[in-house]
Amino acid sequence: MASTSYETGYQKYFGDRMANVPHEAAGQEEAMRRIYDEWASDFDKETKEAGTVYHKPLAEYLDAAIKQVEDKPNSEIKIMDAGAGTGKIGVELKKLGYTNVQALDISQEMLNEAKNKNVYNKFICTPLSEQRIQEIETGEFDAVICAGTLIKAHVKSSALVEIIRMVKIGGLICFTLRYNEVADYQDMMLELENTRRWESISKKKVPYFTAGDMPKEAEAFLYKVLKH
Ligand SMILES: C[S@@+](CC[C@H](N)C(=O)[O-])C[C@H]1O[C@@H](n2cnc3c(N)ncnc32)[C@H](O)[C@@H]1O
């Protein structure tokens, strides 16, 4: 199951939006911005039809880890939702009492949808890449959550370095990877561990989609930041 690409399912529910995305960085970013800008108004409806279910379990996974390392109330924990899309993770975080949450995404139209959910207090429209994001201070966040966005055609593994930079030393990073793409991120994840930039706290399977021909689970990871 882990090696199945599920292309048929993705195509059935989301069409051929992701066809012919260029591999080189600038072309990929431009394509992603355009694809998600056009998709934004239908995104929640189409992902609901595909049975997307990972937002609640992922938010709960991060929440449980935060409780292990922080003694502040949830309302004082500053979280970046990286690749926030239409804000479904923000909705789940708010249910858990997190009210200091920011949203970053490459697509302004996706962020506009997220604004309607009233769960974020700041929006940053910029790509996640190895480039430093000027609006974000080093160590600014207690945690970053990145759901369904570390996808090969979306964000390169080198962006993990910039994600680490956003988080305070001792802070947390929580993200999903598709099973069939774990290998594409693994070298970078290991390099960051070997160079003591972060340490693994845990990983677990989370429910991903419920529709028959879509992947049922994704791999979720939790890391603690050690060094910028
Ligand atoms: C599959 S959606 C997931 C959205 C949201 N996290 C969720 O789980 O519902 C992927 C998101 O990543 C964003 N994205 C794609 N490439 C990106 C990049 N290089 N930097 C930042 N966001 C990106 C898209 O605009 C889109 O909102």
From TrEMBL:
- Signal peptide stretch: none
- Kindly state which keywords UniProt assigns to this record, in alphabetical order: Methyltransferase, Transferase
| Domain of life per record | Eukaryota
Q: Which organism is it from?
A: Desmophyllum pertusum
Q: Methyltransferase domain spans which residues?
A: 74-179
Pfam family membership, one: Methyltransf_31
Which CDD domains does the entry mention? AdoMet_MTases (cd02440)
Protein name (record): Methyltransferase domain
User: What's a Gene Ontology MF term here?
Assistant: methyltransferase activity
One Gene Ontology term from the biological process aspect of the record: methylation
SUPFAM superfamilies on file? S-adenosyl-L-methionine-dependent methyltransferases
